[in-house]
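Section 4.2 – Deliverable D4.2 (structural model, holo form)

The reporting period included a commitment to supply a predicted holo structure for the target in complex with FNR. Inputs used:
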Amino acid sequence: RMPILEQCYNLMDFEAVARSVMKKTAWAYYSSGADDEITMRENHNAFHKIWFRPRILVDVEKVDISTTMLGTKVDMPFYVTATALGKLGHPEGEVILTRGASKHNVIQMIPTLASCSFDEIMDAAQDGQCQWLQLYVNKDRKVTRRIVEHAEKRGCKGLFITVDAPQLGRREKDMRSKFSDVGSSVQSSSGGEVDRSQGAARAISSFIDPSLSWKDIPWFQSITKMPIILKGVQCVEDVLRAVEAGVQGVVLSNHGGRQLDTAPSAIEVLAEVMPALRERGWQDRIEVYIDGGVRRATDILKAICLGAKGVGIGRPFLYAMSAYGLPGVDRAMQLLRDEMEMNMRLIGASDISQLNPTLLDTRGLSMH
Ligand code: FNR
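Output (structure tokens):
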């Protein structure tokens, strides 16, 4: 029997429920990682290599976990990251995530390949709610330009260009389950029919331009005033190059372990990136985000301590939505809020600005 919502006490609980209630194809698409799923598992496990160095006797009666991301004030230091095909999990799709994000004043990143149309998602947003656009760059740049200009006109506050997917990874679980009974088509503005014979991931890969390169960045800068963030950066050298290219941010990410298997976890990369930026005095020239495997507030706190502006969370909200709809997403966010406040108290920090590397013992990371 399906547990009632109140019996979900952490984000992992939603995953267990979702697995038991979701359609097999949908579960396969959401839960799969590339190849042997080594990176996908490592994403969460890597957080366990870092220990806290909590401080005592700090006044933590009031704890403030609000922060800013790309200039927008948010109530918590995470955002709902872009995940394609929301209607596989819930008939209403991404707008459920929009409403949940709105209730908790956190940002939603809208995927290019959402099941709901971009406008439906923007229309579901409350006044003043901040949203970002995740962009898969189409071979036809006129299509891409139209998507970007439309997003800016509708008030999107950030353009996250996905750079870790010149080709979509092989997610074998997903390929095995075939992508035939999908009631929800890819509705994106990219247009065109998709080949559904090889799993959802393969089906959408035809939209993506593998020739995308650093040379294209000035073009994006010329067509939009939105801040540009590269999503899927995986090593220090490319972060430095991103600063030089004049983009406003990077998301250290391996796409939830769905692309290159045995790519490093984002938290490991972050631990290397921030010192390199500080060494050059560049830490304020770029905002650094991470995603992948974030399941506990302690994961979020570790990322912020190391210097991330915020973290993206993907599957847990998909699972909460698939299992319980909006109340599930709402509860998942409330659980994170409660965990955040408690753990801030327990490490001895009363606001986000007090989080810093001296609160961590990172000797277990492989960079050492
Ligand atoms: C994704 N992700 C993703 N990223 C992207 O840039 N465009 C996309 O369309 C998608 N689609 C997508 C679908 C599903 C089902 C998943 C699970 C993930 C990657 C996503 O933005 C993010 O990098 C990871 O999901 C973060 O890892 P966790 O939080 O899912 O562990």
